[in-house]
UniProtKB/TrEMBL annotation:
<keyword id="KW-0966">Cell projection</keyword>
<feature type="region of interest" description="Disordered">
    <location>
        <begin position="1"/>
        <end position="38"/>
    </location>
</feature>
<dbReference type="GO" id="GO:0045892">
    <property type="term" value="P:negative regulation of DNA-templated transcription"/>
</dbReference>
<keyword id="KW-0804">Transcription</keyword>
<protein>
    <recommendedName>
        <fullName>Negative regulator of flagellin synthesis</fullName>
    </recommendedName>
</protein>
<feature type="domain" description="Anti-sigma-28 factor FlgM C-terminal">
    <location>
        <begin position="47"/>
        <end position="82"/>
    </location>
</feature>
<keyword id="KW-0805">Transcription regulation</keyword>
<dbReference type="InterPro" id="IPR035890">
    <property type="entry name" value="Anti-sigma-28_factor_FlgM_sf"/>
</dbReference>
<dbReference type="Pfam" id="PF04316">
    <property type="entry name" value="FlgM"/>
</dbReference>
<keyword id="KW-0282">Flagellum</keyword>
<keyword id="KW-1005">Bacterial flagellum biogenesis</keyword>
<dbReference type="InterPro" id="IPR031316">
    <property type="entry name" value="FlgM_C"/>
</dbReference>
<keyword id="KW-0678">Repressor</keyword>
<dbReference type="GO" id="GO:0044781">
    <property type="term" value="P:bacterial-type flagellum organization"/>
</dbReference>
<comment type="similarity">
    <text>Belongs to the FlgM family.</text>
</comment>
<comment type="function">
    <text>Responsible for the coupling of flagellin expression to flagellar assembly by preventing expression of the flagellin genes when a component of the middle class of proteins is defective. It negatively regulates flagellar genes by inhibiting the activity of FliA by directly binding to FliA.</text>
</comment>
<keyword id="KW-0969">Cilium</keyword>
Amino acid sequence: MRITSTGSGALAPAAGPTPVTAVDSRAPSSSAGAAPAALQSDVMKPALAAMAALPEIDTAKVEALRDALARGDIRFDAARLAGLIERFHGGGR
């Protein structure tokens, strides 16, 4: 492919900058279905309480299990896990 110049070599300046309007993502939405912040907070309270009640993750145990899986010391049955998940979510009725 060959590119040839047809002009004088000078480039024309681009149009001036276009003004940009800032949008505050913290501003309340104007949609009719938007819930007030207090209501959203009340909806989240049970989930936050449930998360707080969960035990901390034992990272040492997770690493030990990951290593045992990698070495083949313990077996992982993906089909069995898929079946259990399906049964839990009501697919095995």
